[in-house]
């Protein structure tokens, strides 16, 4: 079990790295610095003896083996049910100004950029659900917390936009 958790943590780390790399693509200087590393461009490091990419193959196998809904709460009704039954900590990972403009009732604001500095606010003994505007930041937050050994964290991909579109209550 510990070995399986270690492999999952490593693969989630690679996935987070890929998200950050593609996000860095918006900044050409940062992207150039990341991709010019010898470790990243050395074919011996990235390929197995047959020439197949190691990292790509490992990530592909991991992603293909994930069940549908992995680490997610897929719809508003499922989130409402979880909120009624298990009292999760609902974390809005958007900026403070986005949070102030409207958020899901009961949500705590911990912006994604400040997540690591606020781990003391994130419990390990009850469910934690992250959401943002559209799902991108909350997915990064879920991966980050799983890398830090939180196995009670899930994302809410419908995010604030889905909650609002469903006509649910919003706190301003």
From TrEMBL:
One Pfam match: Rhodanese
Q: Which Gene Ontology molecular-function terms are recorded? A: thiosulfate-cyanide sulfurtransferase activity
InterPro entries for this protein: Rhodanese-like_dom, Rhodanese-like_dom_sf, Thiosulphate_STrfase_CS
**What SUPFAM superfamilies does its record include?**
Rhodanese/Cell cycle control phosphatase (SSF52821)
Q: Spell out the SMART domains in the cross-references.
A: RHOD
Rhodanese domain mapped to chain residues: 84-172
The UniProt entry, under PANTHER family, shows: THIOSULFATE SULFURTRANSFERASE RDL2, MITOCHONDRIAL-RELATED, THIOSULFATE SULFURTRANSFERASE_RHODANESE-LIKE DOMAIN-CONTAINING PROTEIN 3
What is the name listed in the Swiss-Prot or TrEMBL entry for this protein? Rhodanese-like domain-containing protein
Organism annotation: Stenomitos frigidus ULC18
């Amino acid at each position: 079990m510990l070995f399986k958790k270690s492999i999952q943590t490593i693969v989630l780390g690679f996935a987070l790295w890929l998200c950050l790399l593609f996000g860095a693509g918006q900044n050409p200087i940062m992207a150039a610095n990341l991709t010019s590393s010898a470790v990243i461009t050395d074919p011996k490091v990235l390929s197995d003896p047959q020439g197949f990419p190691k990292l790509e193959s490992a990530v592909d196998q991991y992603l293909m083996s994930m069940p549908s809904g992995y680490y997610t709460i897929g719809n508003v009704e499922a989130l409402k049910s979880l909120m009624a039954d298990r009292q999760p900590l609902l974390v809005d990972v958007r900026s403070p100004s986005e949070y102030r403009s409207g958020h899901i009732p009961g949500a705590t604001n911990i912006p994604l950029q400040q997540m690591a500095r606020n781990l003391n606010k994130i419990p390990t003994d009850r469910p934690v659900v992250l959401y943002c505007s559209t799902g991108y930041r909350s997915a990064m937050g879920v991966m980050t917390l799983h890398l830090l050994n939180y196995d009670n964290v899930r994302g809410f991909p419908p995010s604030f936009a889905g909650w609002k579109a469903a006509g649910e209550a919003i706190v301003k």
